Amino acid sequence: MNDAIRMQISAFVDGELPHNEAELLLRRMCQDRELRQQAAEYLAMGRVMRGEHSIAGMKYLRERVAAVLDDTTLLQEDPVVAESDRPRFLRPLAGVAIAATVALAAIFGLRQMTAMPDIDPLQEGGAIAEAGDGRSYTVPDQDDGQLRDYYLSHTADSSYFGASSINARLVTLQLREDMDIESDVSEPQVDDEEAAPAESIDMQTP
Amino acid sequence: MTMRRRNLTVTACVAFGSLLAGVPYVSAEDVAPRDWLNRMASAVQTTNYEGTVIRLQNGKVEALKVVHVITDGVIREKVLVQEGNGLEIIRNGNEVQCILPDKKSVLVEEWNDQSNLFSTLPASDIRFGNEYDVSIVRHGRVAGRKAILLAIRPHDGYRFGHRVWLDIVTGFPLQTTLIDDAGDTIEQVKFADISLDEEIHASALAPSISTENFRWITQPRRTITAAVESTWNAANLPNGFRVVSIHEEKLSGRAVPVMHILYSDGLANVSVFIEPANSNKIARRSRVGASNSFSVETDGYQITAVGEVPAATVEQIATSMQPQ
Q1: Facing A167 at nearest CB: one of B57, B108, B109
Q2: pLDDT tens per residue, range A109-129
Q3: pTM for the full predicted model
Q4: Is-contact A123 B283, C-beta < 8 A?
Q5: Does residue A122 lie in a domain region?
Q6: What was the ipTM of the complex prediction?
Q7: A136 in reach of chain B (CB within 8 A)
Q8: Distance from CA of A73 to the nearest CA of B (A)
Q9: Residues A151 and A103 in one domain
Q10: Is the Cα dihedral A79, A85, A89, A94 positive or negative?
């Protein structure tokens, strides 16, 4: 099996393969056990990494292949990929189109965050998380007002330099959303058109 | 479809799109990787779009409905979170209303910058230049549109990589992925469906729910002083990072302004906040999405580095800050 066909399978799993190519691929899968196995591995990987029981393409793939082969065993659960097999497929350098499935790897990792109390003497408030490198992190919560201010300020300033990422903007929104607005806003204002302090000056875009 | 046939199809698509757009035809293969970044930068500043965005972050898959219109340079935008509390964001120029249905509140704030939700990666000159390679990886489809995958790979472990799927015809980013040094995805934002440059009715930008009887709360505008001279510098700054901004900023609850130094390698930014240490200790390490922070106390000052970079980068920068 070459990289091109792996790319096709991965694109199919990610729901990115054009319909006509998907049909062609399905026909090939019906005749090629290795292709089916490869697809099943991708699908299973996605499911395992996402921690869900179904992902895009899985039901369609099973039904189509099962119908053609008249093989109801294909409608059973996918095999779980052995841990040792993962790196081979998770590496973009392998030339395999696995954008969505790789994304799920990170998600799976983040889901494994484990509470580790008393790791950080400076830690106050917020949930403690552990990254893959063994370090612990604090996920700022409503009590981390100072830290949250830093994140928001950083995101706002980054945007002036054209490198504020989509995700940074969304993180800002997330932080905003998580704010306890009842406690954060001291002077609720209704229809206030003069809310901005007079001494504020806009930062100039370089 | 063979690779050759795929390329021919892509070329035809670009040619046809160019004819429709009235711009000179250039084949996808003729466009240099960094020129694709230019096309992208131009597209995000001029393109109207409407679609569904899937966002993967922190173990959560989230769907957002997005409408974005630019008229005479004024951005109007609506983002509607499809799950959870139904957060709705309405942007009209610089004013942004965050509608929180569950709290029956509307948070009004000002984004006095020209960025928008999906504008983001830099123009072709990842400005300081040598810390990343930009290459075209392959062609494919995203949101039903022909697209080209651009890889921005860092040369070292001090910054993240990016994979960006760009619409072949317009250069609009259809999918962006942030990649860590192990090659794994940290965050991904992807259009599941999108309409580009089609007529968008004004009603599409209106709030989807009535805010009658909601509580309206105006967030104070950021208070920033003019640029200042820094009395601090980083003794061990990772290659490629440079100071791009120094100013003082009044943050809520602080008696004195906080010094804010922004470093950039042209793509990744790291902010360093310096203020007198006090009893309100903050986490030494923290993470929100792709953003990491590291905080340390030096000479009676609390120094916190924050940025969309690996944890090691913010730690190195924060711990190397020294008063001059």
Answers
A1: B57
A2: 222 221 222 223 233 333 444
A3: 0.60
A4: yes
A5: no
A6: 0.75
A7: yes
A8: 30
A9: no
A10: negative
